[in-house]
Design goal:
It is a single chain. With 101 residues, the chain is of the alpha+beta class. Helices cover 64% and strands 18% of the residues. It has 4 helices and 3 strands; from the N terminus they run αβααββα. The protein has a 3-stranded antiparallel sheet. α1 packs across α4 and α2 crosses α3. The longest helix has 21 residues. The protein is globular and about 50 Å long. The structure holds zinc ion.
Length: 101
Amino acid sequence: MDNKVLRKLFLGFIQIHILHHAKEEAIYGSWMLEELYEHGYDISPGTLYPILHNMEVDGLLEKEEVNVSGKIRKYYRTTTKGDTILEEAREKAYELFKEIK
Ligand SMILES: [Zn+2]
């Protein structure tokens, strides 16, 4: 993802991807990094963590800090607002992909 324009585009895809998984079950950063990597997004923790934080600030995700063998792990789940945004984004994405596929 060296291209600036592509990075901007992918940021939206990544956020939809995060919402999708955080709706199904609580996710945490390193799990999400691996999941994104499997889908072809090679992003760094330094990119992902601010995204998760901003989505929390925007009220799309809620965070729960869990002590996992002495280390605090931040788990994220979607809020009601996050679910609504995901639903809208899903419809728009589907509509677009039908056209450009
Ligand atoms: Zn996925």
